[in-house]
Design a protein that fits this description.
The chain has 416 residues and is α+β, with helices and mostly antiparallel strands. It has helices at 25-41, 53-60, 92-99, 125-139, 154-162, 171-178, 183-206, 213-227, 287-306, 313-317, and strands spanning 47-50, 75-79, 85-89, 108-111, 147-149, 167-169, 231-239, 260-269, 272-273, 276-282, 339-342, 349-353, 370-378, 385-395, 398-401, 411-413. Residues 189-396 form the Peptidase M24 domain.
């Protein structure tokens, strides 16, 4: 089913050209900021203060490198009816003044907090930042309203509260904004998936007895960065007796004849991410492996066929087996195996689809959502397993699959 669900979603070339309409980054920036403003206006908040670099990128269209993802050093403020203000790491602020003209120069500022506690709160940087933020909220006339925060270091939260600011959960507002993708976002997601299509060809060409899981991961990383990936977040490579239960990692295990092996490639192009599993047999396959693959394929196909605007995520989750039916004691233990999750600037956006959360708290599917659906089936041999994942665009006409490497049946790499 992965290649017969309607017209292809465009995956244009990565260069800008004059002879084709490709991704319009100006339009992308305008769309994202407008979505964030609309979500803010629909909330009780007077402003959004964001530290999550995906939210910073969504609001300001700035990024300085993956190394900053876990440093909590960058932050941005979006008050109602005002322009976004960005505080960035040292000289990056000066760089934005030169090369990011969509931000007012005075709104691109150098900022520094604690680098996750490495600079102690006693240094006063959190208090200084909180005073500056409150002053801007006062200037915007929204200091009397709650301020939404997505993720925050406790000393920053306490500094804001000491100044009398009413701090609320703002991550939900930002996720509301980000859940419907524009045509430009979908093109970037499709291009990212196309890069993984090609990477899987590199993998199956190399997938022979004697190669190690980590060597395949190294090949995949090189291929992706050669094609223009800006971040290879993670690659799972799981083979042989490691397949069941799923360990969600890779090792230096030597791949052997007849192994079942599955990979998950998580990477991004211009910030837009993939989550893309494929399962292979090496040289030959067994009846147990083929049977597990067939069941995993059936589970994902019935889920894909259900996708359309108006469907609840509970309707999809109910199609999948209960945890106890494939060897787990409860849904928490099996979480992430029969699973769906939104894709965008983050790996896990809305909607999240599973029997753990969706049956009692369903989300309605809407056109413009993009998410991955993934299934997992242990084999009857006690150690092999099949893992399949497809990325789906929800359209008014139903699902569009953008992960195109062959997966209709178990792919035998380099058959004997």
């Amino acid at each position: 089913m992965s290649s017969d669900t309607g017209p292809l979603v465009p995956a244009p070339g990565r260069m800008g050209v004059d002879f084709e309409q490709r991704v319009d980054f100006g339009r992308l920036r305008d769309y994202r900021l407008a979505r964030a403003r609309a979500a803010l206006d629909a909330s009780e908040l007077g402003a959004m203060l964001v530290f999550d670099i995906n939210n910073i990128r969504y609001i300001t269209s700035t990024m300085i490198g993956e190394w900053a993802r876990d440093k909590m050093a960058r932050y941005a403020l979006l008050p109602r009816d005002a322009e976004p203000i960005l505080w960035d790491f040292g000289s990056a602020a000066k760089h934005h003044q030169l090369y990011a003209p969509w931000l007012r120069p005075e709104n691109s500022r150098a900022g520094m907090l604690g680098l996750r506690g490495s600079v102690a709160p006693e240094a006063g940087l959190f208090d200084r930042a909180a005073r500056e933020i409150k002053g801007m909220l006062q200037d915007a006339g929204v200091a009397h309203l709650p301020v939404g925060v997505d993720v925050v270091e406790p000393p920053m939260l306490f500094a804001l509260q000491r100044l009398g600011l009413d701090v609320r959960d703002g991550q939900q507002v930002m996720l509301d904004a980000r859940q419907i993708k524009s045509a430009d976002e979908i093109a970037l997601l499709s291009t990212a998936a196309a890069m993984v299509d090609g990477t899987y060809q590199t993998i199956v060409d190399a997938l022979k007895p004697g190669i190690r899981e980590n060597e395949v991961v190294a090949l995949a990383n090189k291929r992706l960065y050669d094609m223009g990936s800006d971040d290879v977040e993670a690659i799972n490579a799981v083979s042989g007796e490691r397949c069941s239960p799923h360990p969600h990692n890779f090792t230096d295990r030597i791949i052997r004849p007849g192994d079942q092996v599955y990979f998950d490639i998580i990477q991004s192009f211009n910030g837009y991410r993939t989550c893309y599993y494929r399962t292979f047999a090496v040289g030959r396959s067994t009846p147990a492996q083929r049977d597990a693959y067939k069941r995993a394929r059936e589970w994902i196909d019935i889920a894909i066929a259900t996708v359309k605007p108006g469907v609840g995520t509970d309707e999809i989750a109910r199609l999948w087996p209960q945890a106890k039916d494939f060897g787990f004691e409860d849904e928490m233990s099996a979480f992430g195996l029969q699973f769906g999750h939104g894709l965008g600037l983050a790996l896990h956006e809305r909607p999240i689809i599973s029997r753990l959360n969706s049956l009692e708290n369903p989300v309605e599917l809407k056109a413009g959502m993009v998410f991955a659906l993934e299934t997992y089936c242990p084999a009857s041999d006690g150690y092999s397993a099949a893992r399949i994942e497809e990325e789906i665009v929800v359209t008014e006409d139903g699902p569009r699959v953008i992960t195109l490497f062959p997966a209709e049946e178990l792919f035998v790499a380099n058959p004997y």
